[in-house]
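ok trying this again, last paste got cut off
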Amino acid sequence: MSNIVYKIVPADLWRKAEEDGSFRGASIDLTDGFIHLSTGAQAKKTAELYFAGQDDLLLVAIDGDRLGSALVYEPSRDGALFPHLYASLDPASVLWAHPLVLRADGGHDFPEDFA
């Protein structure tokens, strides 16, 4: 499977999405009108820039092929194309969700099966 995209999300927000059967996004997603996602090459930098020092986060791996035309790659940070989801996320599209372990330096350790 080559089209995997990732979402970094607070664990409590993701648990609620699983209970509800739908993830509408975090506050920034709701404000911007789409769910911010990252490719495998972008996820660590996203964690560094926007989630440094934050504990109780999950890295959610999503099958991008299941998102259909609602998944759009658009220029963002440094002109790189980032995946944006213009729909709510069905947890059935999720391959796995693993904790991002917070290190003493404020960075995160990514799970072993992260590509």
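PB: full thing came through this time. The chain has a mean pLDDT of 94.
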